[in-house]
Amino acid sequence: MTDTVAEMNQVMAEADCLVGEQQVQAAIRNLADEITGRLKDSNPLLFCVMNGGLIFTGQLLPLLRFPVQAEYLHATRYRQETTGGILEWKLQPEADMKDRIVLIIDDILDEGTTLCAIADYCQAHGAKQVLTAVLVDKQHERKARPDLKADFTGLDVEDRFLFGYGMDYKGYWRNAPGIYAVKGL
Predict the structure, then answer these.
(1) Which residues, including other chains, have CB under 8 Å from residue 40's CB and lie 6 or more apart?
(2) Are 137 and 148 a contacting pair, CB within 8 Å?
(3) pLDDT (tens digit, 9 = 90+) per residue, 11-51?
(4) Domains along the chain?
(5) How far apart are CA 59 and CA 135, in angstroms?
(6) Which residues, in sequence order, are bridge partners of residue 167?
(7) Burial status of residue 41 (CB atoms within 10 A of its CB: 0-12, 13-18, 19 or more)
(8) What pTM did the predictor assign?
(9) Which DSSP string do the residues of 2-37 spell out, in sequence order?
């Protein structure tokens, strides 16, 4: 256990802070304004993608200026690893999404395989429209679909292994108060 703590403290000590906490907070406020402007009269159903979307969703929700039905789901490809595998549903959505606008909230758009699979699931279960909101869009050419973009994006960040504000490194540092990149990754 202490080896893990020492390793994680070393990762943080050597990490590069790409986006500071104040800049992240400003991005979340801007996203809240944008989402409010677009969805305030549409009675959307919001899904927080666990675990990564937890911190972002928790900070975004109080800034939305309209009544919100917020639920969660849990699908993963990483399972505490640093590379993705097959999509695994840990908890499928239970809320009725038929004829509703669904907003999926997640921490990061990396390749987008998980986000696309969740959006496809919601569409197949009757959603009128599926929108996505991510705190971070990692800039690279490996997206699951050509020109894949979230409907609402807080920050564009370079293609490195990121952690903080919900994103983790081997299951740790989701709580880091900014967006960090692991040294050498």
Answers:
(1) 65, 66
(2) no
(3) 999 999 999 999 999 999 999 999 999 999 999 999 999 98
(4) 2-76+84-181 (3.40.50.2020)
(5) 11
(6) 164
(7) exposed
(8) 0.90
(9) HHHHHHHHHHHHH-EEEE-HHHHHHHHHHHHHHHHH
